[in-house]
Amino acid sequence: MKLYLSPGACSLSPHIVAHEAGIKLDVEGVDLRSHTTHGGEDYRAINPKGAVPSLKLDDGQVLTEGAVIVQYLADQAPSAKLIPAAGTLERYRAQELLNFIATEVHKGFSPLFNPKITPEAKSAQIEMLSKKIGYVAGKLEGRDYLMGDTFGVADAYFFTLMTWTPGFGIDLAKWPSVKAHFDRVSARPAVKAAMDHETKLKAAAGAAATAKA
Predict the structure, then answer these.
(1) For the chain, N or C: smaller number of CB within 10 Å?
(2) Is the domain 2-79+190-212 a CATH 3.40.30.10 member?
């Protein structure tokens, strides 16, 4: 399988899940401005949405949408216990969290990436986003991870989004349970490995672009 990602983007989430599950993936970076892979392919031919992540399966089919991809990867390694078994209420609780993180927290960040956003609109958006983060903070009260004592796919997704907060002046210290979760997840070896891999991919892409200039 091959995971298409852009270093620092939401595609870090399935990258973390793959490392946690012990799944070896081919990984290829994508320039989201030109929609070209680091290998020179037209990324829109792989994923017409033009967004990351995408997961190309061994039979050539392509899965998109991060909340779906993390579930697929987790199901390939059930012994890692990254998501409850299909058909159980716990599985639906995990999907409930994934949907909230995708549609409320993730999309809450989207306007902030618009360079044309006004200071007033930015402030209002951060206020709204803070309420969504606050909801997750409540879920984390008294527990190490979103589903309890065990790290799972929802933790990978939420952590990934929280890596964006410093760029928008959002201080996680406002939510002690979120800050503790962020620090806890940051320390996981698989998370460090995924982030180190993406740092190297970004450096390699930068070096290649400089060489072409």
Answers:
(1) C
(2) yes
